[in-house]
């Protein structure tokens, strides 16, 4: 979520008033804002997407709740020591959190372990361990519409009789100390992005948030007029019309068997009725196609932790496979491919398959990704129910990612086209009229220059590095992962360095290359990549021949509040994942909206950015999805590229020989070995096209006016990438609720004016 203060002031229309009031007290609002901790309760883009969605849902007047876990420790703080990433605990609650309100009156029990009893009255899950879920509510204000929604985060608490209720003659002190075991559930965020780690504590976290949330939803449903009806049979008939639940990836997939357990075991609904309601309630968003990211929980673990849920999953699977077998008799291979249970070695539950079978809608997060989901990853399921599969291209909130972080640009745009664009970003197309307006071109360039100077001062203060604000700010910030190819950027840096050294007198367009992002603590290669970037930076930044022509900076502890500083100052945005690996990306959209140009592959939302702005207004290079598939078919041979490209050969040899690590010549041998022998993401295959494309970038940067005109064309084409547009599509195509642009009256104003205009349907 990042910081809340400035976003709240903007959405409430109070920023200027607060700035002025604080100034009159002799204080500086910006200094005050810097004191607030980031709420870093998620990993990478998936968590930030949820935050943007909450802002858009409130702004569109939807009755929506965001549910999650109130981690005591969020994503780790990253320190760089001697070029290596070191993790520190993110004790973000140390000074308290003024935005949250504990709601002990809504505390709920969550059960684990135990066993299943089948009796005359039905099935019971008994002898369980109970953990209490304590909700904390954070307000989510819409933009200038007097709507405030709720983000409800659950914290784990041990019940007071924990370890004391059973014939316990044992140690009272130890029993109280053991309360920590229960409360550890909400202690810390698992820091993996695009990687599955099948740990018991993680499964506990996933079920904890699901069980508490579903009880909360059902309590709210029963308290509404829809849930109170005489005939017991029909109490839940209207449930899917009143409740929509969107699964953000497979992490909350246990919600599907849990809702079935509530309906069948507790509410005594017949299986078929319960299953129909469940399917119509859930929808699933897929966020990745990387096989190592797909959740596959061992059956033994689920059986131990959630025995009743395993039985329900088996029953869902049996009926699912019976249906497939009736359509495709004797096609055993299809049954194996489509089963929720993977046999062979340890039996595992494929959570994505569970989500597809248990949902009425499945979507990817960019056109190209949704196609890959349909035609490759889940092709059998899409063949069966093509109407179930949709696309919903991701977006970003223009409140945080333009108004808040780039007020200079926001104001400049408002001067030209009015202020309405903040709620309807498609209006940015009106900027096309000003592409040839010399004054506007100069003003856009001036705002960018001011942002760069400000960021350069920040870097000087925080990192003691002097950088040239007129150099091109070439920025690559995102989680560190092989598929995102920070290594390819690194090879380009080395290539530029070698060119400067080979011919110091030759014209060189000065660059400041900024790379930032966190590596999962257990991801060895990602940590080596950080060390390599820092080692290269050390050599480049201290070479007198290079001087101020090339500077390399690794941006420590990349997070939302730092993104808000670096993105408005960026000239060139690096979006260089191997085609077919980045589901969407959202950083790409933030840079586009803030007046950076994109160098990127035809991957994720880059494809649609090129479609909106015209391919000639992005620097697109490299293999397309089809080329990657072709290369896989014939076999990727890294050695070939190394042999044919002298500059690549030189750069790789320097890494491998210890040119950048003279104290430890073998330091990067793992990295070089990977690049040659098991590089799944084909860095060498795109190297030449990337370097050539970067030459075109430098050439254009020399012509400030032509560069800025291309920037304006990009900003004018960024309207599609508002999360407001994304949420309208979810609302109409999946949740079946109507967004409302109505500004509801303040609490002290009469309500009847808008009483009859409230949309039907409730919570997403």
Automatic annotation (TrEMBL):
Family the UniProt entry places it in: Belongs to the glycogen phosphorylase family.
Classification via CDD domains: GT35_Glycogen_Phosphorylase
Superkingdom of source: Eukaryota
Enzymatic class: transferase
Organism, scientific name: Uria aalge (Common mure)
Classification via NCBIfam families: P_ylase
Cofactor(s) in the UniProt record: pyridoxal 5'-phosphate
Name of the molecule in the record: Alpha-1,4 glucan phosphorylase
């Amino acid at each position: 979520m990042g910081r809340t203060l400035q976003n709240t002031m903007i959405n409430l229309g109070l920023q200027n008033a607060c700035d002025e009031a604080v100034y009159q007290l002799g204080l500086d609002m910006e200094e005050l804002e810097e004191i607030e901790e980031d709420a870093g309760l998620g990993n990478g883009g998936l968590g930030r997407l949820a935050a943007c969605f909450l802002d858009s849902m409130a702004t569109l007047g939807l009755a929506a709740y965001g549910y999650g876990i109130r981690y005591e420790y969020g994503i780790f703080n990253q320190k760089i020591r001697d070029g290596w990433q070191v993790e520190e605990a993110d004790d973000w609650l140390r000074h308290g959190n003024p935005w949250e309100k504990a709601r002990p009156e809504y505390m709920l029990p969550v059960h684990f372990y135990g066993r299943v009893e089948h009796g005359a009255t039905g099935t019971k899950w008994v002898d369980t361990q109970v953990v209490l879920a304590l909700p904390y509510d954070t307000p989510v204000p819409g933009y200038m519409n007097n709507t405030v929604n709720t983000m409800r985060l659950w914290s784990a608490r041990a019940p007071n009789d924990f370890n004391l209720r059973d014939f316990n003659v044992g140690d009272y002190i130890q029993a109280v100390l053991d309360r920590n075991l229960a409360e550890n559930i909400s202690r810390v965020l698992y820091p993996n992005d695009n990687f599955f780690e099948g740990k018991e504590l993680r499964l506990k976290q996933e079920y904890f948030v699901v069980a508490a949330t579903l009880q909360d939803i059902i309590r709210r449903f029963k308290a509404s007029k829809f849930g109170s009806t005489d005939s017991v049979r029909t109490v839940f008939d209207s449930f899917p019309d009143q409740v929509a639940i969107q699964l953000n990836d497979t992490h909350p997939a246990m919600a599907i068997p849990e809702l079935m357990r509530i309906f069948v075991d507790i509410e005594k609904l017949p299986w078929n009725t319960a299953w129909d309601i469940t399917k119509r309630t859930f929808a699933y968003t897929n966020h990745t196609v990387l096989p190592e990211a797909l959740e596959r929980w061992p059956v033994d673990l689920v059986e131990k932790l959630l025995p009743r849920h395993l039985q329900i999953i088996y029953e869902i699977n049996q009926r699912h496979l019976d249906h497939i077998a009736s359509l495709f008799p004797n096609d055993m291979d299809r049954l194996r491919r489509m089963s929720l249970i993977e046999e062979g070695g340890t039996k595992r539950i494929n959570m994505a398959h569970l989500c597809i079978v248990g949902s009425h809608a499945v979507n990817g997060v960019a056109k190209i990704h949704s196609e890959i989901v349909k035609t490759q990853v889940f092709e059998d399921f899409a063949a069966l129910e093509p109407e179930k599969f949709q696309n919903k291209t991701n977006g970003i909130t223009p409140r945080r990612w333009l108004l808040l972080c780039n007020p200079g640009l926001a104001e400049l745009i408002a001067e030209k086209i009015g202020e309405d664009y903040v709620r309807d970003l498609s209006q940015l197309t009106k900027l096309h009229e000003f592409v040839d307006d010399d004054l506007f071109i100069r003003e856009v360039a001036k705002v960018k220059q001011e942002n760069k100077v400000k960021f350069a001062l920040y870097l000087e203060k925080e990192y003691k590095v002097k950088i040239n604000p007129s150099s091109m700010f070439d920025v690559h910030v995102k989680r560190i992962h092989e598929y995102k190819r920070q290594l390819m950027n690194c090879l380009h840096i080395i290539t530029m360095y070698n060119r400067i050294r080979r011919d110091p007198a030759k014209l060189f367009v000065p660059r400041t290359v900024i790379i930032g992002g966190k590596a999962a603590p257990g991801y060895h290669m990602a940590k080596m990549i950080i060390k390599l970037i820092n080692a290269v930076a050390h050599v480049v930044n201290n070479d007198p021949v290079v001087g101020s022509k090339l500077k390399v900076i690794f941006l420590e502890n990349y997070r939302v509040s730092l993104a808000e500083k670096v993105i408005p100052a960026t000239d060139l945005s690096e979006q260089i994942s191997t085609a077919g690996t980045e589901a969407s990306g959202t950083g790409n959209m933030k840079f586009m909206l803030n007046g950076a140009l994109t160098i990127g592959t035809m991957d994720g939302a880059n494809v649609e950015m090129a479609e909106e702005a015209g391919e000639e207004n992005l620097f697109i290079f490299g293999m397309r999805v089809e080329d990657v598939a072709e290369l896989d078919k014939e076999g990727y041979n890294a050695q070939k590229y190394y042999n044919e490209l002298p500059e690549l050969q030189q750069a790789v040899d320097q890494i491998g020989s210890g040119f950048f690590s003279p104290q430890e010549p073998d330091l990067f041998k793992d990295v070089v070995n990977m690049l040659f022998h098991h590089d799944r993401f084909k860095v060498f295959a795109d190297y030449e096209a990337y370097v050539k494309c970067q030459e075109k970038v430098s050439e254009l940067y020399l012509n400030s006016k032509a560069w800025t005109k291309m920037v304006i064309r990009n900003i004018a084409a960024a309207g599609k990438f508002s999360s407001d547009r994304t949420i309208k599509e979810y609302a109409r195509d999946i949740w079946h609720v109507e967004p409302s642009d109505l500004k509801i009256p303040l609490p002290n104003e009469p309500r009847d004016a808008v009483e009859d205009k409230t949309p039907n349907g409730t919570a997403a």
